[in-house]
Amino acid sequence: MKALTYHGPGRRTWDDVPDPVIQDAEDAVVRVDAVTICGTDLHILKGDVPEVTAGRILGHEAVGTVLRTGAGVRTVTEGDRVLVSCISACGRCTYCRTATYGQCTGGGGWILGHLIDGTQAEYVRTPFADTSLHKLPDGVSDESALLLADILPTSYEVGVRKGGVGPGDTVVIVGAGPIGLAAITTARLYSPARIIAIDPATSRLNAAGRAGADVVLTVAEATDEAVRALTRDGRGVDVAIEAVGVPESFELCTRVVRPGGRVANVGVHGKPATLHLEDLWIKDVTITTGLVDTSSTPLLLDMLTAGRLDVAGLVTHRFGLHEMQEAYDVFADAGANEALKVALFRT
């Protein structure tokens, strides 16, 4: 089969690799019908995730069709159309028993495209199929379902839910890429009074406005004073969601949050950020981090099926699976290409 393989910082190939096989009774092999590229994949290619070794097939998001299952798989079967979650869950360890699947100690967690071969291929082996694959209803398209593999549960769980977004809150989302836009979409479910989006790219700010942001600011416009002036008493935002993964965006969040407010870090950081405790210690600020658990995926899938979750506009570029290298080039230069999420489909 063909697959996108990592060969060290800055090096990737789309080439022939062996087809995946069942290795454990709980495995399934899935034909990849739709797949996407994540900002985390770009971090891997920059060398920010040293656990990823040369020869690894990248990717952790896909929609596909089950081809084979191990003898222990009970809930999916050959021919089922499924969502391949970015998180695998053994279902038995202490963390899985509390739905904290991202921290699974039984061989799961974020392993696809990280510790084992991933989804940017014609076929993928998925461990723990019963607890890591989600059957898809006929009314949900491959493209829409693909957004539930990572960005929607990540933005919702690590950003909106950990940030404690509530009715009447003022929320700032720093970064209007796919994660930031998904955070706008899911934050709106809680009726905040105002959502402010910050990004350097005009095209992404326009997308943020379409997604439901009430105010959009360029990075130059988003001074601490300007952001605070948009809040109800000028003291800062209730919730600041960091959706980039660079020190400047995290530090901006900590400066504009109000006393008693919450900073929810979603971005993947490859460099240290300064935590100014000399300013924050007295402000009763809560800072959260996290890896998505995907415990919300069934809920989000129900909402998507019912038409209660608007994902239109998040995918801007579409390719055939064989155009993987071109898709990477477009996504890696998202600003110049006005790219948000790219999707690749079996043709």
UniProtKB/TrEMBL annotation:
The keyword Oxidoreductase applies. Pfam families: ADH_N, ADH_zinc_N. InterPro entries: ADH-like_C, ADH-like_N, ADH_Zn_CS, ER, GroES-like_sf, NAD(P)-bd_dom_sf. This is Zinc-dependent alcohol dehydrogenase family protein. Its cofactor is Zn(2+). Keywords: Metal-binding, Oxidoreductase, Zinc. It comes from the Bacteria. The lineage of its organism: Bacteria, Bacillati, Actinomycetota, Actinomycetes, Kitasatosporales. It comes from Kitasatospora nipponensis. Belongs to the zinc-containing alcohol dehydrogenase family. Residues 10-344 form the Enoyl reductase (ER) domain.
